[in-house]
Amino acid sequence: MKIREIYVRFFGIISSETGHKEIKISTDAKNIGELIVEVCNKYDNLKKRLLSSEDSVLNRHVRCYVNGMDIRLIREYKTRLMDGDKILFLVSFQGG
Amino acid sequence: MGILKCRDCGTLYPEAMITSCSECYGPVDTCIEDIDRSIKSKIESRYPSMWRYLEFLPVNDKRAMDLNDGWTPLLRSNTLGEVTGIKNLHLKFEGTNPTQSYEDRSVSISINKAIEFNSTAIGCASTHYIADSVAAHAARTGLKSYIFVPDNTHPEIISPLLSYGAQVLKVYKQEGDIDCQCHGNDPATCTLVTRIAEIPELSLPIVDLDLRSYFNSGYKTLSYEIAEQLGWISPDNIVIPEGSGSLTYNMYLGFKELYESGLIEDLPEFFIVQSSGCAPIVDALIHKKEIPTPLRNPVTLCENLRVGDPADGLYALRAIKYGGYGIAVEDKEGIEYAELIAKKEGILPDYSGGLAVAGLVRLCEAGKISPADSTVVVLPASGIKKRDNYQLSPALQVPRISSNIADLQSYLETEKKNMVRTAIFKKAGEAAEPPALLRI
């Protein structure tokens, strides 16, 4: 079992659920799907908002980035994690 | 005055700068208080600008500023009606707004709200319509404006912003920036404005982020105006060039508010037109997805439509569910139709306006819009605004002559010989051909 150090940042309204803007997690999660579950288990309030009613599926308004890449544009929940990866959660927004 | 309501779970909030619902993270909309038909005469007695719909707008009576935004012309088409076969076709031309685009409506409301919230500065990340509008409206109010642009932004874009006194900041990329497909598709500016919202003590609200709920209500004023300009009647169809889905959804809400207030008796159907290089909403519609799948690196010359991850796509699809459809059209056709509108109607829309009319032609061909219906096409901005965009147009191959009058005479004689052209197509069925004037 390989332990990886992952940096997780919470932008905007999400950080108020965790009380932190950034945390470092030592984890054996192999992919982002497993990490999301781990992060949610760490913060009860976050779990009910970050995940949709279907387990382990992100709320449709939440975006998750791995090293700046939207997971929906790569391998979604199966996106593999590497030591030192930077994860970011934020609520979607519009712009021009 | 006024309250905010989560679009998804219905949670209510007092007036504040709220970007998302704290319960479900859904978007938050402004709500109007009960309004009935008696408001009509009051509205009609006011000065013609979007502010005549004051009771529908989330601002205090004593608004701080006004650049006479809105009340743009709803022009009955002379020629495009023949092209599409639609007899009752109107063009809502947003190019007569103070900075020549529909974004003036939303920026104007946002800046008034910023002042109500005691802000002394306002910001945006944009190289396009929102940037111009923020700079102009901030100048009018005396607010300091900060415009964040990508590092490689062309001086032609920056120059007018500086004229308005805006502080323009080029933002260069760093490792780990968000690969954003929604906020102008620029990772560095997207990351920065998101982080600004993280630090309230900076007191720099971003117009379409921190003030998003109020910003969106500006789009509704297009619906109020269209209805009033048609004699408080809803058209059968509205055709909208779309990027994020916000314009469609909020125009739908605008008509719904009029309907619920008893000011109109029907709701229009909404038709979305996207560029084929960036059509996630239309793709979702065709493939019956609830939520559009984001696109990486969307490609379109219509900058205002280049939104790979449409934040309001889901809601635009809901608006269409009540009636309407969507279609994707090649940029090339949008350019051609923008030129055609200019030549035949006397107004020069931006590419997205051309795209909307191209989409209308296709929708007629596909039988989605009936020629017997009354239809309004939204032309979001003036094409004069971005002359550099027209560099691909064949019309830019301008002949050169000397100051010798014989040169002019010779040119005119040659032109006369070449003037035998095929007529512009007249029936919807012939519209698959590009406009003849562009095939010279």
UniProtKB/TrEMBL annotation, chain A:
Q: Which InterPro entries does this chain map to?
A: Beta-grasp_dom_sf (IPR012675), Mopterin_synth/thiamin_S_b (IPR016155), Sulfur_Carrier/Prot_Modifier (IPR052045), ThiS/MoaD-like (IPR003749)
What SUPFAM superfamilies would the database entry show?
Answer: MoaD/ThiS
Q: Name one Pfam family in it.
A: ThiS
| Domain of life per record | Archaea
Query: What protein does this entry describe?
Result: ThiS family protein
Species lineage: Archaea, Methanobacteriati, Methanobacteriota, Stenosarchaea group, Methanomicrobia
From TrEMBL, chain B:
**Positions in coiled-coil regions:** none
Q: Per the UniProt entry, what is one GO biological process?
A: L-serine catabolic process
Documented EC number(s): 4.2.3.1
In terms of Pfam families, this protein maps to: PALP
Query: Gene3D superfamilies under this entry?
Result: 3.40.50.1100
The coenzyme or cofactor needed here is: pyridoxal 5'-phosphate
Which terms in the Gene Ontology molecular function aspect does this entry carry?
Answer: L-serine ammonia-lyase activity; threonine deaminase activity; threonine synthase activity
InterPro entries recorded? Ser/Thr_Dehydratase, TrpB-like_PALP, TrpB-like_PALP_sf
Q: Where is the Tryptophan synthase beta chain-like PALP domain?
A: 68-380
State if Lyase is listed as a keyword. yes
Show the CDD domains listed in the entry. Answer: Thr-synth_1 (cd01563)
Source domain of life: Archaea
Q: Which PANTHER family match?
A: L-THREONINE DEHYDRATASE CATABOLIC TDCB (PTHR48078:SF6), THREONINE DEHYDRATASE, MITOCHONDRIAL-RELATED (PTHR48078)
> This protein is called what?
Threonine synthase
